[in-house]
Specification:
The protein is built from four helices and no strands. The chain starts with a helix and ends with a helix. 14% of the residues are buried.
Length: 81
């Protein structure tokens, strides 16, 4: 029973944080990405999509926010040299 309650709280809390994060993407005062990351962190154990999105976000942060095409271009230039 405790596990079920924990799971429901995790799913509802993560969903609320995602919703706030998406709304925050349109409101200049609110930093939406913080809420999106927090929501994905809560949802990751329950959802493969959330886990993949969180892994993508972590990789993006490690790359310093470069786009995927910029990273591929950089890798190609390194292999050409």
């Amino acid at each position: 029973m405790k596990r079920q309650v924990e799971r429901v709280v995790r799913i509802v809390g993560g969903s609320v944080l995602l919703l706030i994060g998406f709304i925050g993407g349109f409101i200049p005062v609110l930093q939406g990405w913080i809420f999106v990351i927090a929501g994905l962190t809560l949802l990751a154990p329950e959802s493969k999509r959330a886990r993949r999105a969180l892994d993508w976000a972590k990789a993006k942060v490690k790359r310093g926010g470069e786009s995927d095409s910029a990273q591929k271009k950089e890798e190609k230039e390194e292999t050409d040299e």
